[in-house]
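Changelog note: in this version the structure field was regenerated for every chain. One regenerated record is shown below for reference.
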Amino acid sequence: MKKIKRSISILLIAMMALAMLGGCGNNSTSGNSTANGDSAKATEKTADAGEAKGTESNPFILGVSPMSGWYAWYGVKDTGIFEQNGVYVDLQFFPVYSDSLTAFYSGQVDGICIAASDAVAPVNEGVDFKVVLVNDNSYGADGIVVQDGINSIEDLKGKTVATEVGTLEHMFLLKILEENNMTVDDVNFVNMTINDAGPAFIAGSIDAAVLWEPTLSTAIGAGGKLLYSTKEEPGLIPDTLAVRQEVLDSSSDAVQKIVDSWFDGVEKLNARDDDFIQAICDGAELTRDDYMTMLDGVTIFDKAKNEETFKDGEDYTYLSYTLQKSAEFLLSTKMINEIPDDLSSILDDTYIKGAE
């Protein structure tokens, strides 16, 4: 199984790595893992920013990391949907999510699967890109698991609660506490990686943990109780497609065809098309049962859902609101120095509106 840790904090690692790449001259392509060859091949294909992407000789390079919603790109690719829409796409798999961020910011890939919250910091760094599509948002794939005797958020007062500072789970915890007139000072907060928090919870060393899949299901299966999940917080954790501005400028038609292809794939996924799901499982190295279980934890976004989330609004249903709240969280945890002036400027619904 291809697994991932989804963390806002790893963005800082990616940005530092990018700075190192800038000082390494010809060695800038080393160290990135991909599924379809080394990153030098991806760099070669993206070297000429002015050349149109999405052709057979110059395919669009899409960086993909392991996550249940993003796995659907394997179905789009391997059932021939891209080619049916007249665009050629190479999926470059990055087992380490931060490696994909580094590749995107340094121009080694044309587009990337990125959590919306991770799109905030690079705006301050001057990275020029647009978020053109929402693939999914978490719908139960992230949650708070507790020991017996804890039956409400208020019951967490004075209890030991663990998750990793700077992650989406940390943001989730702070939001839930705030909604219940509490702060992190009301609990005994322990900064612990998700990989450590899960086993610590199972061992009984902590009272509660904020976890993501598959660690969340493992903790529940070991006797933990799910107290609260992202099913109650729709839109809090959206996963998106971002494209470099230079590629949008040179290859807008190809980007449109890629967005069209996503929506075609979503139709097959929602219909539980056997060939499409098998292509996903083959690409992601998952059994069908495992993938279908993971799929239950996300809401896949079709055209209608995308049109709605790109509108302006005042709750987590709307992408612009989610970005703003993510920026406030990052600032409060000192992971960015300032909130970008206009985060909505990185949102571009042109291709959603243009989809057939």
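Spot check on this record: Residues 252-270 form the longest helix (19 residues). Residues 10-137+237-354 form a domain with the D-Maltodextrin-Binding Protein; domain 2 fold (CATH 3.40.190.10).
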